[in-house]
Amino acid sequence: MTDISSALQRVQAAIGSAAQAAGRDAGSVTLLAVSKTFPAAAVREAYAAGQRRFGENYVQELQAKAAELQDLAVEWHFIGPLQSNKTRPVAELAHWVHSVERLKIAERLSAQRPATLPPLNVCIQVNVSGEDSKSGCAPDEVLPLAQAIAALPGLCLRGLMCIPEPTQDAATLAARFGVLATLQQQLAAAGIATDTLSMGMSGDMAAAIAAGSTMVRVGTAIFGARHYG
């Protein structure tokens, strides 16, 4: 068994334990393997171990890996900040985009989504911690943005995403993740049904699952430490 295969098993077991502790079915939480900065060979290795969903942060890296791994039925998720001049390749290659924070980005993704493909699954990224350095729209902007996105033909609004500030304080984490869960309830009350809360990473996965996460984005715990440069 390879290192990545073993790591995937450990992460899936951790998801199961966290779900059980929260009184949830382990099957209600999807694992997104965040492969940014790791080579296509690592994705191929994880794919061979049964992983199908992979997250990328950079457009150029998504393009390169999608080309190199086109023989595999990978489900690509774009999870990084997206500039309006780089939406086309994402609209053409990705199955999901988690980081929609402005209507302009959503409109471009919808217009550039090939008609031969199903609508692009999208999540609205919410800045739940109010940090100036963080991407995402403000919580009070979510409902009008969701209403506008729901009307775009090339997109399918699936839910919400957040990246809270790094903290070891359990109460703070619970509050941040709770904002997203509350917003999802508000959307439902307004007639906008969603099924996805994309929240939780290697370090805060259990807290996210306890708060209702349906998709955790895990990189380091699967592929190891990242080396930027």
From TrEMBL:
Q: Which UniProt keywords apply?
A: Pyridoxal phosphate
| A Pfam family annotated for this UniProt entry | Ala_racemase_N
Q: Which residues carry this modification: N6-(pyridoxal phosphate)lysine?
A: 36
* Residues covered by the Alanine racemase N-terminal domain: 26-226
SUPFAM superfamilies named among the record's database cross-references: PLP-binding barrel
Give the InterPro entries listed for this entry.
Answer: Ala_racemase_N, PLP-binding_barrel, PyrdxlP_homeostasis
Query: tRNA-binding: is it a keyword of this entry?
Result: no
Can you tell which superkingdom this protein's organism belongs to?
Bacteria
Q: Which HAMAP family does the annotation name?
A: PLP_homeostasis
Q: To which protein family does this belong? A: Belongs to the pyridoxal phosphate-binding protein YggS/PROSC family.
The role this protein plays is:
Pyridoxal 5'-phosphate (PLP)-binding protein, which is involved in PLP homeostasis.
Name of the protein described by the UniProt record: Pyridoxal phosphate homeostasis protein
What species was this sequence derived from?
Vogesella margarita
